[in-house]
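In response to reviewer comment 3 from the previous cycle, which asked for concrete evidence that the modeling workflow produces usable outputs, we include below a single protein chain processed end to end. The sequence was submitted unchanged, and the resulting structure tokens are shown without manual editing.
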Amino acid sequence: MGGRVQYLDILKAIAIFLVVFCHFVLLPESVSANLWMSACWMAVPVFFMVNGALLFSRPFHWKKHIRKTVGIYCVFTVWKAVYLLVIPPATGTTVTSGIWKILTYLFLFGELPEIINGHLWFIEALLAVYLVYPVFRMAYDAADVRCRRSCPGDEAKADHGPSDSDLMSGKAKQEWQNGPGSRKSQMLLCFFAAAGLLCTNGLYSLEILGDMLRDIGIPFGLSFQSLAAFQPFGKYGNMLGFFLLGALLNDGGIGLAGKYFRKPDRKRRRLMGGGMLAAGLLSLWGVKWYLSGRPEWDGYLLQEGYRHIPVILMASGLFLACQDLRIRTKWLSAAVEALASRTLGIFYIHWLMGWILVNPLAAWFMTRGISFGVWTNLLKNIMLMVPAFLLTIVLERIPGVKKLVKG
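The workflow returned the following structure tokens.
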């Protein structure tokens, strides 16, 4: 696998598939379509969990992290400029906003009414998480240094950290990170992961629960909205929570081992993950049913979809179910790695492909009397992901342009 962690590649491949699935939808009004769309809400949280698992598993270097963060911002700005040039002609609109509004759109995270690019909030959230990540990493590394100093014979690891092979096997890392100092850093990450998730997803779910109780005649006058002030990291605090949760759940990483938790074996982890995934999916579908009044897909995305407790269950369940998963078929393993290593390019490019290809595809179906089904949306996924994947391969071979599609 060339130093890659295969189960994280699997998670990234699933996540990018779900991201594309919920954009430019060609779905019928059916329960199965609604379940599919409910599942899509775990895609972005899974991406953040994978990021957390990877970053906390690698040595931290300040200069490299700053370059990475600045690079994400610069690439983000370039793609916003590309959207500015491509999307208006593709949608038949004209940009009438003034120069200052355009500059705010390009460089200061502003929006233009002529440019439909709501999916880019993901990059804004990623930048927000990357800005605060060093604080958590310094606390974690400081705890590890104290732990390693108390362990004779670990001087080399204290200076250099584990090797890439150790990161892959997890053996040296378990010895390196499961000491008492490391457990303190685990609890710190637990606290802020819980703060990020419970002060957003938890409080939002409690508000919906209160609405449900009032609808069935049970008086419930409490409101929890004011408690959101305790969320220390703003509107993207729940994504920071998912980021830290991925680090905590990562196998061989900060796995909540030691005296606090007993890590389940692989089979039990699969069962637990599958149960959480199923429970979260059915619960979120039930929430959508309650809010919309219909169990079928109705063409509208779930309000505040990432701010529900079932999303935590789904994302965590998928993470646990895939943990340590190995693909034994060589061609499939290579395909998953190829896809997972190009998710950034697919993320940016599929949006352009959608505006160019999906309307003609939908018109082709309608002129032939073909009804939409889940299969039509799967076909749309193929039509968007394949050219985006191939174009990413081409662009990554061009010096200077490679950074636009490689994370």
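The chain has a mean pLDDT of 85. We consider this sufficient to address the reviewer's concern, and the full set will be provided in the supplementary archive.
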